[in-house]
Amino acid sequence: MDLEHALVNECIPYIDFLLTPSITVHQCSTPEVSHISLLLLSIPRLCPNLQNLRVYGKLPDNLALDLAFFEATCGMHNLHTLNLGSSKPPDGMISRILHHLGSLTSLETLQSLYILTEIQPFAMVNHSFPKLRNLSLILQDFDSAALIMDSMHLPFLSLGFYFTHRLPRPPSPRKLLQSLARNPHLPLSLSSIAIHGVLTKRSSVPGVDGAETASIFQPLLALVSLQTLSLRWLSGVETLDDARLNRASKSFPQLQNLTLYGRVLERKRITLAGYVPLVQNCPRLGTIAVATACKSFDPRKALPAGLCNEHLQRLDWRESSIESPVASIFRCLNIMFPNLSLLVIPSNFSSEGARKSWTDLQRLVRDSQTY
Length: 371
What we know:
Elements: E1 2-3, H1 5-11, H2 15-18, E2 25-30, H3 36-46, E3 52-57, H4 63-72, E4 81-83, H5 94-101, E5 109-115, E6 134-139, H6 142-151, E7 158-163, H7 174-181, H8 186-189, E8 192-196, H9 210-217, E9 228-232, H10 242-251, E10 257-261, H11 276-281, E11 287-290, E12 293-294, H12 299-302, E13 314-316, E14 321-322, H13 326-336, E15 342-344, H14 352-368
Parallel strand pairs: 1-2, 2-3, 3-4, 4-5, 5-6, 6-7, 7-8, 8-9, 9-10, 10-11, 11-13, 12-14, 13-15
Helix pairs in contact: 3-4, 4-5, 6-7, 13-14
């Protein structure tokens, strides 16, 4: 069942008829009205077999009602996925909310949980969440994420950390990555990780040097089961180069999705030739979103005869730069990724010539799959 924002008010009088034990999936938009608490509290009571619940919108400001909702979820013994959407718990609530959520022995996925204050309470739930395998958090800083991970040594399948504050330079994930290295389960269990900062595009603050960059991202190389790696707007990402991309490709043989973005204005250090190890070592790679200096080269001299990646269909170059003739770049792409069908290009261009080059390359990629 999906209750949209506009329909909630009309549905309240009929809630006992709409919500039944047969419902296993429910999405609910929460308008900012007081009686929405009736709907929230009715869900656990009337839908005891609910397995997947998504609440999006603003939760009521009344502190007792918020607590009552999370307390009521304790009785939902079949709930395995809880997505709080854009709902932000009021200040001072995190420890008590976690106390209730931690008792959900069936919970496998907890998404979009705001942790803006009170990080310490996570230490209190170290032995809770027995089946939790997928977790995404929205935080003010990545040091807080490190504290959380040190308190939850679980065999996670996927992790997402989303930084909320816009700063003049990207945040450093050093402490967070070190905390992940202290979890003995992750090298073999973790298949997806996303760590995203927020950055203004005008930022041009110098980043860290290459030596520090290597030490920052070294813990990631131990996560040999990764299928999805997404790093956006983090300190040091912009200094990754072809050599480090080569090492990463050898560490992640199962990789299917790769995203690496640093500062927009920074010079790109990963080149098109740096994709060769991805072709050689990551045969299942299906999407690449990497800020790249697009310089042509001869892939036939770098790859064994006939070796290519036939899975990759989407290439996101929105933060990349064209530094060779369009035809030669397309030739490189066609040899390495013969089934490439979608090229995402920048939305802003430095000149009319740049706009034409990008649109010509995009057209060549699109047309190559129509014949």
